[in-house]
Specification:
Layout: H1 3-18, H2 28-54, H3 58-84, H4 112-136, H5 140-167
Helix pairs in contact: 1-5, 2-3, 2-4, 3-5, 4-5
Length: 184
């Protein structure tokens, strides 16, 4: 765990220990965001399994493995929370069996560039969903759970960006030079 993630986790533990709102039921917004994020995570796990089946690039496999581990942790945490609250769980896609990446036809197979960019989009969308959920949650345990999830996804996004830069896969928008500014 990175130093900043460890600091964040310790800070969240302290905040949560100072507030105890677990005795209250989750409000409808908390339930909706938890249920929606769980449905999202279920789909992401399936995508990560597909990505692991398609890539032969070692660093990308490591990133997919780390991402899948985090997604499974999020899924388990959310499943436990929602079950305790009596909330029915969303339907999950079936797990994908392992396969040989060389057996997948080229016209069907995503490239490593496509895989890592889609994976990174997951990190961006998930971090936004988690920030939104944390800001709308009244229960401290729900809010801190989503803040931790957000930190997990931001940490993975940073790792993805480093890999994408190193491999030449990072998509950079054009630089903006406002009218009248000196060109460099």
């Amino acid at each position: 765990m990175t130093g900043i993630a460890q600091f964040f986790e310790t800070t969240m533990d302290v905040i949560q220990s100072l507030t105890n709102s677990r005795s209250q039921p989750m409000h409808v917004g908390e339930v909706m965001t938890a249920w929606t994020y769980l449905a999202f995570v279920e789909s992401i796990v399936a995508f990560e399994e597909v990505g692991l089946n398609m890539t032969m690039e070692a660093d990308l496999k490591k990133l997919f493995t780390a991402s899948r581990k985090v997604a499974i942790e999020h899924r388990e945490h959310l499943t436990e929370l929602l079950r305790k609250e009596g909330v029915p769980l969303p339907e999950a896609p079936e797990g994908k069996p392992e396969c040989n990446p060389e057996a997948i036809p080229a016209g069907v197979k995503f490239t490593d560039n496509e895989l890592v960019n889609m994976l990174n989009m997951n990190f961006v969308v998930a971090a936004g969903m988690c920030a939104n959920a944390a800001s709308q949650s009244l229960r401290a345990d729900v809010s801190t759970m989503f803040l931790k999830f957000q930190m997990d996804k931001l940490s993975l996004s940073y790792q993805a960006k480093e890999l994408m830069e190193r491999k030449g896969w990072l998509k950079i928008p054009p630089f903006y030079n406002p009218p009248g500014s000196p060109r460099q």
